[in-house]
Design brief:
This protein is mostly beta strands. Helix content is 4%, strand content 50%. The chain is built from 1 helix and 9 strands; from the N terminus they run βββββββαββ. Strands 1, 3, 4, 6, 7, 8 and 9 form a 7-stranded antiparallel β-sheet that branches. Strands 2-5 form a two-stranded antiparallel ribbon. It starts with a strand and ends in a 5-residue tail after the last strand. The relative contact order is 0.24. The model has no long low-confidence stretch (mean pLDDT 96).
Length: 141
């Protein structure tokens, strides 16, 4: 909902899904920032929330997650492409994963062409690709 944005801004998503039968338990949603795909230890869970009870039909809610902690991102992985993953789970079973690519760069052409030796996070902007990759998983409902 707030794209593009400053790197330090919160993430805001509107999540819409269809439920074909009422659910007894809550759905758990998580937002995860992946700065270094080869190292899961550097993944940052930005927020999670429980949604429920979930009635049959089209459901929607707004999800807000904090910006990633810059101190946990390797310097070489700050600029360029990273990933943002939104997961949905029911009874500790992941049923959907929505992956977005995020590009992070400086807010002006001069800094883009000649990045300073030390990252200036206040000058970074992020742009999330509008075409996510959606993976669905079969679970026991």
């Amino acid at each position: 909902m707030n794209n593009p944005a400053r790197f330090s801004d919160v993430y805001r998503f509107k999540v819409t899904f269809e439920c074909i039968a009422p659910l007894q338990d809550d759905l758990e949603w998580k937002l995860i920032f992946v700065s270094c795909p080869g190292n899961e230890e550097l993944d940052q869970e930005l927020d999670d929330c429980l949604v429920g009870p979930v009635p049959e039909g089209i459901n929607s809610f707004e999800f807000e997650g904090a910006a990633p902690d810059p101190s946990r991102i390797p310097t070489d992985d700050v600029l360029g492409v990273s990933a943002l993953i939104l997961t949905g789970s029911y009874r500790d079973q992941e049923f959907v994963r929505v992956g977005y690519y995020q590009n992070t760069e400086y807010d002006n052409d001069e800094m883009k062409e000649n990045p300073p030796p030390k990252i200036i996070f206040e000058r970074l902007v992020r742009d999330i690709n509008s075409k996510p990759r959606v993976t669905r998983f079969h679970i026991k409902w």
